[in-house]
Amino acid sequence: MTGGRDFTLKNVSQALRPSVAGSSSKNTVSFLSEWMKLFSTATRVSCELLSSRRNSLCVTWKVATGMALSAFLLTATLAWSQPVPGSLDVHWNEGASDCSATPQDPLQVHKYEPQTFILRQSPCADFEANFIYLLIGSDKALLIDTGAVADPKAMPLAKTIVELLPDKDHKKLPLLVAHTHRHLDHRAGDPQFASLPSTQVVPFDLEGLRAFFGFTNWPNGIVGIDLGGRTVDVIPTPGHNETHVAFYDDRTGILFSGDFLLPGRLLIEDAGAYRESALRVVDFLKARPLTHILGGHIELNAAGRAYRFGSHSHPSEHRLELARADLTALPTALERFNGFYARYPNYILTNPIHNLVALAIIAVAVLIFIAWGVRRLLRRRRG
Ligand SMILES: [Zn+2]
Ligand SMILES: [Zn+2]
Predict the structure, then answer these.
(1) How far is the CA of 372 from the centre of ligand 2 (A)?
(2) Which of 11, 296, 312, 319 is the most buried (most CB within 10 A)?
(3) Do the domain assignments include residue 43?
(4) 246 lies in a domain?
C-alpha cells in the first residue's frame, strides 16, 4: 500500500520543543505531574497536623518539602531526558576483491538497542553498500531507506524487516517506509514493501514527499513523526539532492543523515542549499542531545582515504558514526569550497558535475595540443 497520511504527523515549532527530549517525554510529564500532586497533598496534610501545634514548624516543613521536590524533579528530568544508550560495537561487512570466490550474506543486521536496528547491505551485493535503519515505536515503526538492490531473492530486505517487527494486537506493527532522498540506491527496495499489510511508503519525489509530511514552507520547517513514545523529526536538507531530508530520533539522540553527511564523498549538487541545510541542522541540534550521526554509506578507510568508486572491497573501513564536530564544521567547509574538491579528516567535498566539466576541458586541451604537435611534425618533415 502506498501513499495516504494515516500516520500521526505533527508540525513542530522548534521554539516550543523542550530543549532535551527523552524517549518517553509524554509519559515522563504525566508521571512527574502525578508525583507533584502526591507531594503537595502530603505536604498539606502533614502541615495541617503540625500547624495545630506550631506555625513556624509548618513553614519550615513547607520550605524543606519544596526544596526536596525541586531537587527530585530536576534529577528525575535530567535522568529521563538522556538518550537511550546503544552499541556500535560491530564490524561491518567489508565485501571482497573477488565476491564470487567468497559468498557472503547480502544483509547484515545489528541491534543498536532493542528498538533500533542498523542494516548494512554487503559491498558484494552492491558497491554502494547502503546502511538502512529501522526505528521501532510503541505504535508503529519507521524504516529509513530501502537500499540499492531491488531483487528480493538477492536482497531479502522486506522479509528481514518483517521478522524484526514486533507484534501488536496479534498483528505486526504498522510500518512507515521513508527515504533520505530520491537517489536509486536509497529506494531500489521499495517494491518489496508495496504489497505488505499495514505498510505505507512515502513518495520519493519532492511534491509527493512535501505533501505527505505536510511541509508548507520547504526547505524551512520541521515535521515530527510520532511512532508512539518516540518522535522522529524530519529536517529538510537539500544540497546533495533537492529531495534530501535528515531524521532526528529523540529516543536515541541519533541523527540519520543519509548522503548529507557521511564518512565518504559528500557529492554537492547545490553548494548554497547544502550550506543552508547544514546551518539548519546545526541550529536544530543546538539544544538537543546528539549521540551519533549515522549516514547512508562508508566510502573512506580508517586512514581517511576514499575507496575507488564502484569497488566491492572495503578493507579496514572508517567507523560509520560521525560526531557533532563533523556537523558544526560543515557550514564553513561548504562556504570555503572551491567548487571541485576539498578533503577533511572524516569526509570529502566534491562536485561531480564541475569535476566532469573540468576533465572534459582538460581532455579537449590535450587533444588540441596533440593535434597541434602532429601538424607541426608533419610540416617539419615536409619542409
Ligand atoms: Zn545520494
Ligand atoms: Zn547514496
Answers:
(1) 43
(2) 296
(3) yes
(4) yes
